[in-house]
Amino acid sequence: MTKNATFERPQTGQSASLELTHALTQTVYREARMLDDENYVGWVKMLADDLLYHMPGIETRYRRDKTDQVNDLTRMAYYNDNLEEIKKRLSRLETGTAWSEDPATRYTHIITNVEVEMTEKEGEYQVFSNFYAYRNRNEREEDSLIGNRVDIWREAGAAFQLVKRRIILKHNVLLSKNLNIFL
């Protein structure tokens, strides 16, 4: 997959129908449950072959600095992955050498403020959401991640597949020992 220089936002500003909004809201809730349950086989089925999963690193900048830290895919990112790279990350869990996951981390994803808009492409929808992700490992290791997501979901038969996700953390510095979580 060739990574574009920018993260496209093909929104039209037109809200989706209540039925479509409900269906996509249930889809992002189902995705969160799969991640909480570590059902990565089911989660990967929700990902499109042409997936772009992007979480840029954000620097504290003055307002007058107009550098596009969010949409520029050439800047530092915690994730800038396609489907194969996501599968590679997940395959590490099966090796027995993923020290950060033995014992397993416990996750809770809370998704809220879901909005659905039509895009310029028929059958693709832009979904905005906020998240709170809590993770706990061993007795005392706790992390909370908070932010926003902008997704593109595509109709795939009777379901939807995630085509693009841009994750914007509200943290300037991650204090976590690792980043073994999908948001």
From TrEMBL:
Coiled coil: none
InterPro entries found in the cross-reference section: NTF2-like_dom_sf, Rng_hydr_dOase-bsu
GO molecular function: dioxygenase activity
UniProt keyword terms in alphabetical order: Dioxygenase, Oxidoreductase
Top-level taxon in the UniProt lineage: Bacteria
Pfam family, one: Ring_hydroxyl_B
CDD domains, sorted: ring_hydroxylating_dioxygenases_beta
Family matches, as Gene3D superfamilies: 3.10.450.50
GO biological process: 3-phenylpropionate catabolic process
SUPFAM superfamilies referenced in this protein's UniProt entry, alphabetically: NTF2-like (SSF54427)
Entry keyword annotation includes Flavoprotein: no
Family designation: Belongs to the bacterial ring-hydroxylating dioxygenase beta subunit family.
The protein, known as: 3-phenylpropionate dioxygenase subunit beta
Origin species: Hyphomonas oceanitis SCH89
